[in-house]
Amino acid sequence: MIDLVVRGGTVHDGLGSPGVTADVAVDGGRVVAVGRDLGAARRVLDVTGLIVAPGFVDAHAHSDLVPLMPDAQPFKLLQGVTTEINGNCGYSYAPDATRVEELTGVSVPDWTFAAYLSAISEAGPTNHMATLVGHSTLRGAVAGFRPELAPGELARMCELAAEAFEAGACGLSSGLIYPPGSFGDTDELVELARVAHRYGVPYTTHLRDEGSAVGRALDEAIEIARRARVRLQVSHCKVAGRPNHGRAGMLLAKLREARVSGVDVRGDQYPYTAGSTVLAALLPPSALAGGGVRDLLGSPAERARLRALAEAGGTGAGLWQDTTPAGVLVTSHTGDSRGDQIVGFTLADLAAGGDPWETLCDLVAADPAAQMVIEMMAEEDVVEIMADPLIGIGSDNGPPTGLEHPRTWGCFPRFLGAYVRERQVVGWPEAIRKATSATADQFGLRGRGWLGPGAYADVCVFDPAEVGHAGTYAAPAATPSGIVHVLLEGHVVVESGQFAGERRGRVLRA
Known about the structure:
The structure is a single chain. The protein is globular and about 75 Å long. Strand 20 (491-495) and strand 21 (498-499) form a beta hairpin. It has three domains: 2-54 and 454-499, Urease, subunit C, domain 1; 56-277 and 376-442, Metal-dependent hydrolases (TIM Barrel, Alpha-Beta Barrel); 291-370, no CATH class. By secondary structure, the protein is an alpha/beta fold. The protein contains 16 helices and 21 strands. Strands 1, 2, 3, 4, 5, 18, 19, 20 and 21 form a nine-stranded mixed β-sheet that branches.
């Protein structure tokens, strides 16, 4: 007798095939059959009228430390996500990530990558987790926030990368608008990506510029992938900044041209017009060189110099020109006793008719790790990028606490509800492929991201008429609707929309 039958739903294989009415038989943590009359089972879930899909795979997550929280955190399972890719944007929490504290405000042990994976494995993740090793973390481990590498330091970075891949890192990530990663040049990244090539894992990148110079930045990423012969994942694909709206076609054309020329490139996207990152990203990255941003912003002359760089725009200018003070919502700030009078207000609100630039500098000087939600994209560009078959789904979530971006709690249901059911940007088979195999294949997650005999029984059952998310930037933590059941390797971890309470996730090592 088999363990479980999921009976009577519309089954999608995750590969883009049309859905079929069928049962799914699960035994020993794997799918053993898809069809009808599959025999007796110890348990049957009747899912008539619902869609049965592979568990969603989040291409771009920042849940690296979530397993160390005291309670189980089901915020991804409640979206149907069974696997996350962490360590994105150049920041992993190993090896030796103490230099990352200046930007993240999080103090962590001086882990090796193997020790980090062991720590989160022992703590018990609530969903499966794979982790990239970050370029900024590697650079910080050997050179801190110095812009120039000393002789031998790049070789040491490559050694640390190889150790991470030996331990199970699923790829190399970069975040080239953030120091210290922003100080690295193309050749430096090629050398590290060549180490990734030796292990058969991809290179993922937050491009050096997602605004006016996004074309040149994408050219650099493609050059790195071509020279190193690695798969390329372009993180949170967008064209940011009001002057750049309408340029989605240029970005997509470059991705297609690169793929035709032999570069195995894909991208991911979150379904929102606002992003979220550190407030300091509004400043030119050079402001954080050396790690002395507080002292730098204490000088009126330096504030004026940085303002001139920011207002000039272009690569190295930061995000100041990509939004407006009214489009910047402060979501965390711990360096001021007025915290509850800062969080939840825009930069325009906080400037109160004064100079928003000076207000920004004051806020960052008090807390370099302060966070924001930032309006940057046009809805038309979001939709055009979403429709392209090379683009999968990645939430770019933060930890499930406080005033985080609503994508933390609702990215995948929002995509399925607002953009698939209501706007019909893509159909259900393609939407499910984008949320599953498109990412699993890119990161080498064998047996995941598809639904058929032999696959791991990571399964999401959802109601296509109800799936969605009502979270807003002001009230982001709403529970998604329409996610009915979720299985992790055959264990029912969400039943009738409720978390079952068990930490059943695993650390997935490449």
